[in-house]
Amino acid sequence: MMNMGGSDPVEGHTAKAFDAVLSDLRLQIVGMGGLVIDQVSSAVRALLDGDATVAQLVLSREAKVNELERSIDREAFRLIALHQPVAGDLRMVKAASRIIVELERAGDEAKKIAKFAARVATGEPQGPVLAVARFLRHMAELTTGMLRDAVRSLDESNADMARAVQARDSELDDEFAAALRQILTLAMQDARYLGATIDTVFALKGLERIGDHAKNIAEQVVFVASGEDVRHQKKATEAGTPEQ
Prior knowledge:
The chain is mainly alpha-helical. It has one domain: Phosphate transport system protein phou homolog 2, domain 2 (Methane Monooxygenase Hydroxylase, Chain G, domain 1). It is 86% helix and 0% strand. The protein has helices at residues 9-49, 52-83, 87-121, 127-131, 133-156, 159-167, 169-189, 194-226, 230-239. Helix 1 (9-49) packs antiparallel against helix 2. It is elongated and about 65 Å long. Keywords: Cytoplasm, Phosphate transport, Transport.
């Protein structure tokens, strides 16, 4: 006998089940984001303090970051295969797979900084690190702040917050450029610090890349929340227009 009045109860149950799984997927991403933010903050703290224990903690948690990426990606694939979402739900599931890649890459940069911190703690010269400590600290604050707001904007589906994350990327780029000038001056003054200087430059560059990953996450949030693909706008702006 056909159900002539109202919606199909089976369909309603399926929709509720999908919403619950999608909400859980979002929570898993937020949890992964929290771990990566702590990885970045801890890695820089280990570097500035010459703390081998904190550096090893970051390195030991790298496997957890990777496992979260794999498990969330499997869940996103399963959602698409079983529920065939459309419109905003499909955007969310597709964006989830992209966001966790950005988080994993940010975690990988934190791992590299932690490895350098471990070397500093066991004898590598700390002079170049101390010379740009202010920049390292500020860049770490910027990158973790950008990551935190990017993840929060996903949790709240807040496109305006995500756009604000994108706008802060230029400040991070300026800090990196200033730090680079200062540390290259040190390298020219004392060749003994060359190896440690190169490692410090890589640490600074790693923080700048983490900011890029936060910006990329924010772009995905704008896409999820509004359907606007700002990645294509960015490419068009960078390409410019031909002269008349």
